[in-house]
Design a protein that fits this description.
With 307 residues, the protein is of the alpha/beta class. Helix content is 27%, strand content 26%. Strands 1, 2, 3, 4, 5, 6 and 17 form a 7-stranded mixed β-sheet that branches. Strands 8-15-9-10-11 form a 5-stranded parallel β-sheet, with helices on one face. Helix 1 packs parallel to helix 2. It is elongated and about 75 Å long.
Amino acid sequence: MSEMYDVVIVGGGAAGLSAALVLARSRRKVAVVRGGAPRNAPAEHMHGFLSRDGMPPGELLATGAAEVAGYGGELIDDFVSSAEKSYGQDDFTVQLASGRTLTARRVLIATGLRDELPDLPGLRERWGADVLHCPYCHGYEVRDQPIGLLGGDDPRTLHVALLLPQWSADVILFQHTMELSDTDRAQLDARGVRVVEGEVARLVVDGTLRGVELADGRAVPRSAMFVAPTFVPNADVLHSLGCDFDEKGWVVVDPTGRTSVPGVWAAGNVSSAAAQVIVAAAAGYNAAVAINGDLVLEAAQLPVSAG
């Protein structure tokens, strides 16, 4: 037999827990299905979150989960195998990998994204330590160090290259596969960013990052490296629910996270690659308020419909 909830939230990161807290405090029956490691699990600390700067990501989630549970929210350590509209009804059926079935009046998907990294030896093993992607998240921690940036096809790479001199006067852009125009080079020169041409063969790692080895055998010492991963939303559940996606593969949502499917919301990195932890938490809050309002409106209209 399935269990009925006002809202089932898929994903127990900052967005999902923030939404669950708001909904539980609104006296809604809420379940949070939290399976898998958070995207920021490799990082030792998170930054830029007012009052939580420097906190380990796992500690934030543990604290948030305890708060949700304190208001009666249910935390389920499981995976969602499928989600769909209940046959002939407006409710949703959420099937868990364990075999348990949940029924929900509304669904919020907060499953985040995954970072697909360049295939270079040494890169993945240092990911989240001294191989980084966000200057605002990690730039201060590697300030004044010799910093490298891996060139590539992502247009964000040039922007990051122009940002990094705010944290260090020793920044090298390893061109790798990146095409640079004369204008690009002029901007990099104006910011004091050196360009090293040639493909990168591997990162030199000896406990920590030591440098970059090029395909021609040259070695350049570096103690921190920034890369631009490919952001891929964990959107299988949204696809199974029939939500619309844009041409770049991201779910289409309104400012509250409402998708094209009535009753389904999305929040956090699953719908926005740029959402830092504090932004994802805010998105979860906004979605929760919208979901509660939608349920209230439905209840207010029921007597009219019956009449």
